[in-house]
Amino acid sequence: xxxxxxxxxxxxxxxxxxxxxxxxxxxASAPEGIVLSRSAFxxxxxxxxxxxxxxxxxxxxxxxxxxxxxxxxxxxxxEGDPIPPAGTEVRAAVADDRRSALMRTHSGxxxxxxxxxxxxxxxxxxxxxxxxxxxMDFNLPEVPPGFKEAVEDACNAEIAAGRRxxxxxxxxxxxxxxxxxIRTATNLVPEDVEEVRVVDIVGxxxxxxxxxxxxxxxxxxxxxxxxIESKGKGFxxxxxxxxx
Length: 244
Prior knowledge:
The chain is 18% helix and 39% strand.
């Protein structure tokens, strides 16, 4: 299946990460989830949470508080909100503050990943994020002296460099021919995926990724490494905060 489809839903956010409003038709609906013909709501994945927002239809509003992946892409309505029936035309809006914060945070994590891989050769073993805060786990056997400060300074130098962040979709064979395209200790791209979405912080970090990102590193803001934790022998967790 093409990366810009999930079930019957065309995923608009993968080709236009700045899109915040769109029109669609309801294909199926229930209190457990609403399926749209097209959607710019990021449904969550790769550590990035799902978008929030609203659907407006026939003079009423349905708040969207999450998403669920299955045979279709289901948008989760707020409990008690009216549900548009199948066939209804809706105008949708993604909550801009939340999405923009998550884009900056996600791109910040890719900068962190690129710096730690480049300077210490460590791969990612896990990660998660909320708006402006995140954590990333690495297979890092030892923490060298001055590691926290060195990583933070290097990340902010890459942000200040204003590196372009490009997104492209490649055939699987072509994508996996890129050196170090998988920056996780385990390859998380399913074997049946024929097209791979690649996010490239030009000159720093290139990896398979399905999330949303800002256009240049300068849009991230500033990264602070707030804490380093041991997660068992040979594994470290770095917590970061993103700010203006």
